[in-house]
Amino acid sequence: MESNGRTVAELVVSRWGDHRPGLWCGERTLTHHEVAAGAAARAALLTDLLPPGAHIGVLLDNTPEYPLWLSAAALAGGAVAGINPTRRGAELARDILHTECGVVITERTHLPLLQGLELPGVRLLVTGTEEYDTLLAPYAGARPDASRATPRDPLLLYFTSGSTGAPKAAICSQGRLAAAGRSLAGQFGVRPDDVHYICMPMFHGNAVIADWAPALAAGAGVALRRRFSASGFLPDVRRYGATYFTYVGRAVQYLLATPERDDDRDNPLRMGFGTEAGAVDAAAFERRFGVRLVEGYGSSEGGAAVQWSPGTPAGAVGRAGPGLVVLDPETRAECPAAVFDEAGRLLNGDEAIGELVNQGPNPFEGYWRNPEAEGERRRDGWYWTGDLFCRDRDGYLYFAGRTDDRLRVDSENLAAAMIENILARYDGADAVAVYAVPDPVTGDQVMAALAGTFDPAAFTDFLTAQPDLGTKMAPRFVRVVERMPVTATNKIHRAQLRREGFRCADPVWWRPAGERGYRRLTEEDAAAYEKARDRRPPAEKLEGPLAPTRGPSEVRRQGLEPRTR
Hints:
Oligomer: single chain
Number of strands: 28
Structural class: alpha/beta
Strand content: 15-25%
Radius of gyration: 24 Å
Distance between the termini: 42 Å
Shape: globular
């Protein structure tokens, strides 16, 4: 059943005549053949409907129409721009116009988002309507044909979420997506009788590249969840017989926060694949559900990837492949190997942590109409990821955070990822995020947002007991949230947390200078802190989260996830 197609179009065509169930969503089931036929009908419609050079915008939840239109675009040699439904107004219009969409496929629930927007030359097709069905009807007898597609044809224009500026539309060609699907299917032994559960949003690269594509390459089935639901996860997995799923951001923590049941391990899942679960949560997930989570690293743009393999140390992402190096962004020199003590604390973070760079060939295909952003990624003929790592003597890589997640406390440089992974051990923590707030004198102070239960005395004792917590790492402020703010792709919304600081609606605890324990932050405390901060010299006021984003040459480094033995 597995296909060796060089294009996604060839993979779609290979499912023609396959009458096994292949796509589930709620009460609806389609065979692989029906999916291929539906894609062929939509591709034929695109041939008559889409202006030359225009792209297909898809503003949908995870419904069967999403993979049908991805497959249709592949057959037609077109490109899909995944439109983020959390965008609003002018920003949403900008995304559609920037990617030059001639058609936007949407549904009734998202029509209010488009009302009043100036979208010249854009035609809306609303799925699930009589007009839509009538438009498709004449093309019902079309057969899938891959002859119009080439490996170099752009197929995906998927927006990457940056911390500053408008999102960038990364390009993914048919050849790259097909190759990624075959690679992951081979790496994880995906079989035709597997079922991939897609609960992450399909407008994001994770769901399409790491979940849909390997299923298509292996001839496996796909089960869709319209939107991620922690309470609906296990019932869906059992209902569809799902064996594989992908996750990003905080999804794993939300699943762990659901009430435990005696039958949690009674499920058909074989594995989950994703990013940012963290070693503590990954271990807890496997204990509770009996499912191994494989953490991987891959830049959204495809410029660098690190694969987990058996023998990878705890806390490491995987071994550096050919061309992957950790460089000092200032000197362009390779950073020394990381040295850990017996407690797993990094001893030489200031020199060992740098930016992960791919000096070898890489499949990065650029950003749509954004040469400036491409220039930031491609420097010196290399691909700069914008992510901080260190590498041990055996070549294993450890993620140390994004370049925007750095903090400078009392002239010491810290990485948020290290502190987060230590705080995640706290019994009351369901989710943790660490970020900077301006210090009253200079640099930053550490602030943590914690979802879960917080006891100030127990938290203080916990911090004291952590052997790998550096003297500058203990949070000065702790914001206790009922639910962590997240982006549409379930990643923690760090920009919002930094922007709000300790001036937020949630309770905030703080540890005043010179005191060991935490107490509630009062209005008087906040005002006094801000008054002292306002006395900083103008140059110093530009430090911390309110400052303009620093360039790569100003990245400083210290700390990362502890290595447990």
